[in-house]
Structure formats: structure tokens, C-alpha cells
Design a protein that fits this description.
This protein is of the alpha+beta class. The chain has eleven helices and six strands. Strands 1, 2, 3, 4, 5 and 6 form a six-stranded antiparallel β-sheet that branches. A hairpin with an 8-residue loop joins β3 and β4. α3 runs antiparallel to α4, α5 runs antiparallel to α11 and α8 runs antiparallel to α11.
Length: about 400
């Protein structure tokens, strides 16, 4: 095994170890907060006699009898009242035979005060993640394995570090930039390798993320937006976290959301320039830079469209509602939550467009010294070979001259 390959395996093992350690980390513990018991249960019986239906909206109470499938009260049954509020995005209507998640307390050692927390979708989610990992391994091999580790690491860092730190009152912008730098470093060096290519991706990505952060900060103020335009933001304040900087969290969400696409584009540029350098080690730095810029121009158009499609498609129902109401485009674009998405798309696109030349410039600088050394070595080898040929010719001539004397 080569030294480079061994370093990549060691780096991957370190990332896997960090993921395992993060899985045991819990920064959200609040000792004074009451905690219920969580378990899975099967719905044995359903009573819909109190449910009222108006067109497609259901309200009032649904009574459930649920038998617990795990936990300290496995096998026991509990009565649950499922309150239907008429909001379809939050309500769940249960059927007999389905598996649900249950949270409950105990009275005299028996389960009571149960609440249904939704259908049990965890197994299917784990299955989908497993299929995704198998596909990556089948298509990309060892690189796919590193991509899976990077995916898990990003999820664990956001869930176990970033979100709890925000709840604890850490400043969103500096914390978000630190988390973005950590994720970018791990992902780029894991997938791109601990080499010049990985360093070029990291530098180009962080320059793009920094620009996105600066633009998001400026235009959030110019658009007169605040963080409460995001779903559940107001509910979060009322839940006891009224000191949170929602505007800062909104800005952090903008540049963190675009950091993945920024890394993707930076990796394309750096990998292409790395391959150019391998094939043409004597290429001039300026020509190398121009090649990277041409590659960046070819891919930047589709990446900006990717952001537009990714962000706008998640709000299709909202746009359909506005169109069904007959609202003019001026009113739609001027709405706070629509303006927030416009800012999200355009500011992220600024980062994408600029990361291509920034990464190309960083890669050209990093590979410049390598190219010069390789040319010098090649010139030395050529000079040494020529000297050997001349020495051999002189020796042959001397030998032939000696043998020709009487």
C-alpha cells in the first residue's frame, strides 16, 4: 500500500471514530426538564366517533389503544387521545395495525398520559440511507466509502454540535462559519485527498462561503428581513429560547445551505486542474489558470440553476396558492418569506459563480511550484542523458582511434 493510500485510510478511520464519538455526545440536556418514556407501539383499536370532518380537514379527538412493543412496559396497552387541529401539515390520522412512536409517563408503575408522536418511519429511513451508501460504494469504490463517511460526519456535526450550540446562545455567524470550515475541511480532504487538490478545494470553498456570508449579512439588512420568516421560528422563541438571534441564524442558514454546492463546484475545478497538471507537468501557471477558468465557465451555469430548482421546488404549494389567489408578481416577490428565498437563491449563486475563479487561482498557485520543480528535474535528466551520450561517443572515438594505429 502506497503512503498516500495509507494516509487516506488513516484519515477515514479518524472521521469514522469522530462520528462514533459524536453519536454519544448530548449538549441539549436540561436537568430540570421533565422527560417522558419513548417507545414503539402498534395501534390495536381506533375510535373515530368524535372526529369531525369538513371537506378534507379533520378536527376534534381520535381515541387510540396502543400496545407497547419495547421499553420498560413492553406488552402493556395504553389509551391515547390524538388531537386533530385541522392543520394537515401537522396532524396525523392513525389506523389500526400501524406502528407508531409513543411518549408517555407512568402512574403507579403503569403507562399513562400517552402521546402519539407519528408513524414509525425510522426503519424505512435507515433502509433508504443504507441503499444510498451501497450505491455510492458500488459506483465509486473507496471514494464512495469516503463520501459516505463525509455524509455521516456532516449530519452528526449539524445535529450534535451546530444546533445545540445555537440553542445554548452561541453567536450564529461565527459558529456557522466555524462549522462550515470544519465540514468543508473534512469533506474536501476526505474525498479529494490530503494533498494539493484537497487544499485547493478547501481554500476556494471557504473563500466562496465567506463571500456568501458577507453578502447575506448585507442584503438581509437591505431587504429588511428577520429570522422569524423561517417556519417554527416564532414557536422556538415562545418555547423559552427568546434570547436567540433569529436573524443571525437565518444568515447562517444561507451560507451553510450553499456550502455544499460550493464544495461541489470547487472539487470539479480542482480535480480538473490536478488532472491537467498530471498530464502536462510543464504547463505554464498562466495557461494552467486559463484552463481552470474555462472549465469553471462550463459548469457554473448549471450549478446556479441547481440552486434555483432546489430552493423554489420546496415552496411549490406556496407559489400555487399565490397564483390561485390571483396576486400580482410584485406582491408575491415583495412578501417577506418570498424575499427571503430570493435572497437565499441569489446570494448562494454569487458564491457559486465566484468560487470557480477563486478555486482555479488557488490551484494554479499551489501547483505552480510543483510544475517548476518537475521542469527543472526534467531539464537535469535531459542534460545528464546528453552528457552520457557525449561521453560515450568520445570514448568510442578514442577507442577506434587507438585501434587504427599500426
Amino acid at each position: 500500500m502506497s503512503t498516500h493510500r495509507r494516509h487516506e485510510w488513516i484519515f477515514s478511520l479518524i472521521i469514522a471514530s469522530i462520528c462514533i464519538a459524536l453519536s454519544f455526545l448530548d449538549l441539549t440536556r436540561i436537568p430540570s426538564a421533565p422527560k417522558g418514556i419513548h417507545a414503539r407501539g402498534v395501534v390495536e383499536a381506533v375510535d373515530n366517533s368524535r372526529v369531525r370532518q369538513n371537506l378534507i380537514v379533520k378536527t376534534e379527538e381520535q381515541f387510540l389503544t396502543v400496545r407497547l412493543l419495547n421499553g420498560p412496559h413492553e406488552g402493556q396497552s395504553i389509551e391515547i387521545v390524538n388531537m386533530l387541529t385541522g392543520k394537515m401539515e401537522f396532524d396525523e390520522f392513525y389506523e389500526a395495525g400501524k406502528i407508531v412512536l409513543v411518549e408517555y409517563d407512568t402512574i403507579d408503575g403503569k403507562p399513562a398520559h400517552g402521546v402519539a408522536r407519528g408513524y414509525d418511519r425510522l426503519k424505512m429511513q435507515i433502509l433508504l440511507i443504507a441503499l444510498f451508501g451501497i450505491l455510492l460504494l458500488a459506483v465509486a469504490g473507496v471514494t464512495g466509502l469516503k463520501a459516505v463517511l463525509s455524509f455521516l460526519f456532516a449530519a452528526m456535526v449539524l445535529w450534535k454540535l451546530f444546533f445545540p450550540l445555537l440553542l445554548r446562545g452561541f453567536p450564529p455567524l461565527s459558529t456557522g462559519l466555524a462549522i462550515a470550515a470544519l465540514l468543508t475541511a473534512v469533506i474536501t480532504f476526505s474525498v479529494g485527498g490530503v494533498n494539493r487538490r484537497g487544499l485547493a478545494v478547501f481554500l476556494g470553498s471557504m473563500l466562496g462561503v465567506g463571500l456568501t456570508c458577507a453578502l447575506a449579512t448585507s442584503f438581509t439588512k437591505a431587504f429588511a428581513l428577520h429570522g422569524a420568516v423561517r417556519p417554527f421560528a416564532e414557536t422556538l422563541l415562545y418555547s423559552g429560547h427568546f434570547r436567540l438571534d433569529l436573524t443571525g441564524i437565518f444568515i447562517a442558514s444561507v451560507f451553510i445551505a450553499s456550502s455544499g454546492a460550493v464544495m461541489d463546484l470547487a472539487m470539479d475545478i480542482a480535480a480538473s486542474m490536478d488532472e491537467i497538471k498530471r498530464r502536462h507537468p510543464d504547463i505554464a501557471p498562466f495557461d494552467h489558470l486559463r484552463s481552470g477558468l474555462r472549465i469553471g465557465r462550463a459548469v457554473v451555469g448549471t450549478m446556479t440553476t441547481t440552486l434555483l430548482l432546489a430552493y423554489s421546488s420546496s415552496h411549490i404549494a406556496m407559489f400555487l396558492l399565490f397564483m390561485a389567489k390571483g396576486l400580482p408578481a410584485v406582491n408575491i416577490l415583495n412578501a417577506p418569506f418570498v424575499a427571503a428565498e430570493v435572497l437565499n437563491i441569489l446570494v448562494g449563486s454569487f458564491g457559486l459563480v465566484t468560487v470557480a475563479p477563486l478555486t482555479a487561482f488557488c490551484a494554479a498557485l499551489l501547483y505552480r511550484q510543483t510544475g517548476r520543480k518537475s521542469v527543472e528535474l526534467a531539464m537535469k535528466d535531459t542534460t545528464a542523458s546528453a552528457a552520457k551520450v557525449l561521453q560515450g561517443s568520445a570514448a568510442s572515438a578514442a577507442t577506434s582511434g587507438t585501434s587504427s594505429q599500426p
